[in-house]
Amino acid sequence: MREPVFINQEEINQSKAAILRLQHALQDKNYRYFIESYGCQMNDHDSEKLAGMLEEAGCHKAAHKEEANLILFNTCCVREHAEKRVFGNIGALKKQKEADPSLCIAVCGCMMQQEAVAKRLYKRFPFVDIIFGTHELHRFPLLLEEALAGKRVFVHSDTDGEIAEGLPALRENPFSTNVIIMYGCDNFCTYCIVPYVRGRERSRNSQDILAEVEGLAKAGYKEITLLGQNVNSYKGDGGKMDFPTLLHRIHEVPGISRIRFMTSHPKDLSPGLIAAMASLPKVCNHIHLPVQSGSDRILQAMNRKYTRMDYLRLVEALRRQVQGIEITTDIIVGFPGEQEEDFLDTIRLVEEVGFSAAYTFMYSPRPGTLAAKMEGQIDEAVKKDRLFRLNQRIAQLLQESNQKYIGQQGEVLIEGCDGRGPEIMAFGKLPCFKMVYFPGDTSLIGQLRQVRITAAQSNSLLGELL
Ligand code: 5AD
Ligand code: SF4
Fold first, then answer.
1. Comparison of pLDDT for 12 and 252, the residue scoring more
2. Which pTM was predicted?
3. Of 155, 180, 211, the domain-final residue
């Protein structure tokens, strides 16, 4: 990993000055914003930063798009489906903009980091006021200022991305939140667009991360999730700080009860990390470890740099050392060249591992990636059929494996309540990431409480409060 480039304080100060000017200009205007966020947790956190800047500028969140003065789309381009939805949803705003020409429409995120797509959007939707890529996030207040002055703004840069420290964030959840520890990805899995739009791997300095976690602990947060495309290759402080050591440091922060992290690449999952998970009680016994495929041939074509056997060995080591660990994963079906036999290898791997959740995707060709040009692209109907069969098998296996929880007791961090059924059910996760529903009310939200499991479904557990 290369040394990260930190955005100089001068540039951050310019953004902060723009926030103050916006505060002045928008005073008494009841300026409301609406952010539509697509994609992964990294993107959600970027949206929290955009909201943080807007709140500092004195704007307020609108309950509905229709009430907003500013609508901001934070896009994702990892799969084609998300891209189509963004184009559709922006197109649908034409009428609202015609009715209120002062409405400001902005589009940012990974999709806008692809220059050709950004230009296409710029041409197709002349009513969009601001377009900017992921690497320009910290400049948003300056761009908004220009748009409010009547300019149409398009910014795109091909830098590898830098690290901006010191921006405000408006965190959606008051007891559990995300902390980004590294940006970008160097792995170039052949199907994936992320390295092209998020740039090279770069890690935040540990003192910046620790200061953020300490601030969150003081603000009452109980659970933090450390985020990065590949947290296992975190190398902060000029390469001196690795991920297991960072976990030890964060573990010392008083007030934080639970530490989670994602995503882990199997090729970088070190014995040191497994040992840290085993020895640090606040580090939850859950790991998200995307396998992508159970076929060695396909794993190689995906450039994943591990074999099915390597993966199974990791699972074995994790299970042996980390008590009660649950493993979740990502799987792609229909990668170019995937034969029925390769697919059956994936099914067999799923049976062997016993994942506690799997996020499954049909392969979606992303322009610019190697796999998009590979021979042997799979028919959509075959992809759909494989996805269906895989999901069915996973649900069956989960229904069976979740039975082991019945009668067990555990601690949940209560996230919310669901009033759709005959009885109000509170819900929250065990440290192992299993979701538990139990009779309870909104007063419990944010608390860590003991529950006993009484029944098991494929996607969640049912329990009672102790
Ligand atoms: N097609 C389908 N799924 C993809 N993913 C990433 N790129 C693609 C693609 N082109 C999936 C991977 C990854 C998750 C975040 O999205 O499984 O782990
Ligand atoms: Fe994409 Fe692979 Fe990097 Fe994950 S590790 S972000 S799948 S290139």
1. 252
2. 0.92
3. 155
